[in-house]
Amino acid sequence: MSNPSFSIRSNAKVNLCLRITDRLENGYHSISSLFQEIDLHDTLTFTEANDFSLTSNDTSIPCDSRNLCSIAYQKMKSLAPDSNDWHIHLKKRIPVGAGLGGGSSNAATVLKFLNYHWDIQQNQSELIQIASQIGADVAFYIRGGTQLAEGIGDILSPLNLPETFVLLLIFPPTYISTPWAYQQFNLTKRKTGYKFRDLFESGRIHWELFENQFESVVFPAYPEIGAIKSQLQQAGAIYAGLSGSGSTVFGTFINRHEAEIARQLFINDASFISLPIIQ
Questions:
Q1: Domain with CATH 3.30.70.890 in the chain
Q2: Residue tagged active-site, from 112, 137, 154, 229
Q3: 166-274 domain in CATH 3.30.70.890?
Q4: What topology is assigned to 5-19+37-145 in CATH?
Q5: Active-site residue among 13, 42, 112, 154?
Q6: Is 92 tagged catalytic?
Q7: pTM of the model
Q8: pLDDT digits over 113-144, tens only?
Q9: Dihedrals φ, ψ of 257, to 5°?
């Protein structure tokens, strides 16, 4: 008889906008951002085992104690030391270093799975507190959906967007280091946080107010990434921008047909991977 096994989706996210508001004494930066969960996902398969172990189909990913899944596992194990162990297999589809929060999502999936299957009974607020100790974006995935993010990304407020739109994500095979991006950012250019009510006044999304301040760092260093934004704009995107610190660039379109037309600009270019359109 085989051991019980469960496969759980672990979704990506995009930063629809992002401002850097300050640098904190602990070295982190505070931000003002809008996080949007999307359907692009990894899959984590949990199988009962005698000891904890982690594997992945992506050989570039460390499967030791450095992995956020392992860190999340040990956080929960400390709350339920006598519980049965699990082997976790991580099937990656979210590109690494793409600004799509894949590693954070994976860690949050581990937290939520073990909280339920080990009957730890941490409520949502308590899970968010644990998640914040693992990484800045992990807390977002405890709730997911659409959320305003402040602080280091751990002060979260759920939000309902007044309009629907389609996202087209373009991921160039370039790894952008988030610590590098923060180090390069000129703090004299920091801004006050978004007044999110202004972004959604009159029952519509005011895309003209959206921006990502990391573009001022990433585009000069990687002009090929800046060129993707220009191409998406020329293809009729309502808004185009970098997600997180990159390297993914997304375009927002009014419908799937418009996004499909734009995708054709990239489909034959071997230097780009076009990710699924997300409604």
A1: 166-274
A2: 137
A3: yes
A4: Ribosomal Protein S5; domain 2 (3.30.230)
A5: 13
A6: no
A7: 0.91
A8: 999 999 999 999 999 999 999 988 899 999 99
A9: -60, -45
